[in-house]
Design brief:
The protein has about 80 residues and is mainly α. Helices cover about 85% and strands about 0% of the residues.
Length: about 80
C-alpha cells in the first residue's frame, strides 16, 4: 500500500467519523429536550446548543420527523 492509498483511506475514515458525530448531535435533541422539560429549563437553553437542528427543523422537510422524534422522547 503506498502513501496515497493510506491518505485516501485515512480521509475516508475521518469522513465517516465526522458523519457519525453529526448524526449523533442531531439525534441528541430528543434526550436534551426531555432533560430540559424535566428540569424546567426553557426552550432558550435548547436554542443555545442546537441552532443547526433548529435550522433543519425550520428550513427543510425534516420538520415533521424531528417533531415526531422529540415527541417520542418526551412521552
Amino acid at each position: 500500500m503506498d502513501q496515497d492509498e493510506k491518505k485516501a483511506r485515512n480521509a475516508g475514515g475521518w469522513l465517516i467519523v465526522g458523519l457519525l458525530l453529526a448524526v449523533v448531535y442531531v439525534l441528541s435533541i430528543g434526550p436534551a429536550t426531555r432533560w430540559a422539560m424535566k428540569h424546567s429549563h426553557s426552550d432558550e437553553a435548547l436554542l443555545t446548543y442546537y441552532p443547526p437542528v433548529y435550522w433543519l427543523w425550520s428550513n427543510t422537510p425534516l420538520r415533521e420527523p424531528i417533531d415526531r422524534y422529540v415527541r417520542w422522547w418526551c412521552r
